[in-house]
């Protein structure tokens, strides 16, 4: 960030982010929060397609942790916890604070690590840096006293640490084992921005792996590899993903070792997930502050943490899948003038799995048949019905949101009860009997 005009590369990146933000809004993925009141605090709402896609991300992560991996159980802890949790964890002290500087002219505030020299907005002089705590305060109960003050959780993992013993005992676990949790977290970020990359309310997908100190290095390596693989298996380009070892002086206050998984966003390489060896920091501190001995067989377990953001993953998958095809993929004269957008999302991530389309709208038998097919499929898949516009335009409309398959009822359908299935990526069409449709589609989408 500086006050020089953007370079061509920066201009391209800004354009790309604008295109993605506008597609997300236009097609029901993401809307600015409280938009009719002018927006609020750089927050965002997930629309009908956005919530489907975000649920897909969370479900894939949850299944990976609790089904594919061995010995991990789930948890859903409360957002509001005793404020004592946050003093034990170090969040109320300088450890959980960003250094900010204030412009002496326009009074805007910025993170010290994000700017150089002068105010990026008006080139004014900047104040000396000061610490700014990121916890969001709230009060519980009807009387606002010191005793009723608590905080919205700034990370989901503390709910896991304070339940370590409950899970250990109720599930008769033995080390090593993990606890996975997905939930909202809140941080009073000084500079939210880059669309949903940094927001004040966001969702985390965190897994805490409890193990003996002797095995911590081995598991750290294991989890780091597993987490890189997760993104790659879901289609993220290898060249746009990297794992960076964070040196001691830059690590979070609790981390003995830290790897940041970064994605190459249009606005640069940025963290999407952290893998941390937290040592015995959490369980020993909670023991000290709560008076409850959280040792296991005479020692404090070490914790290897994988901490991902559901929203940052969402943005990563959206950007990585976004393709613009100049002149279009089809050679028709009309299409050749346009830029076609293809959202090449993995089939597990795509919010809409299929669309049912009557070839034309002015033939009532075709419309009736297509609506019957839609009714047949709706209980099984996230599915859309669309009859507006030419068939080519409807295919492109579906490509733009990443719909995997388009099912078209044409004149032959009325004769032999078959329809065509068009594949988003290859655009190849195959003909299938309607009575076999549900099974064929389940096989194509691997949902059996
Ligand atoms: P940053 O340096 O970007 O502020 P962090 O290192 O503080 O992130 P962690 O505390 O390690 O982040 O949180 C783990 C994950 O939670 C991040 O990798 C990210 O995916 C997500 N996350 C953290 N803060 C935010 C935020 N303000 N908005 C969206 N996601 C976030």
Question: What key attributes describe this structure?
Answer:
single chain; 448 residues; alpha+beta; seven-stranded mixed beta sheet; five-stranded mixed beta sheet; 21 strands; 32% helix; binds adenosine-5'-triphosphate
Low-pLDDT windows of residues: none
Query: How are the strands of the largest sheet arranged?
Result: 3-9-10-14-13-12-11
Beta-strand content estimate: 25-35%
How big is the Rg? 25 Å
Total DSSP helices: 13
Give a description of the structure.
This protein has 13 helices and 21 strands. It has 448 residues and is an alpha+beta fold. The longest helix is centred in the N-terminal third of the chain and has 21 residues, at 48-68. The mean pLDDT is 93. Bound molecules: adenosine-5'-triphosphate (ATP). Residues 155, 187, 189, 198-199, 202, 204, 271-274, 307-309, 311-312 line the site of adenosine-5'-triphosphate (ATP). Adenosine-5'-triphosphate binds at residues 155, 187, 189, 198-199, 202, 204, 271-274, 307-309, 311-312.
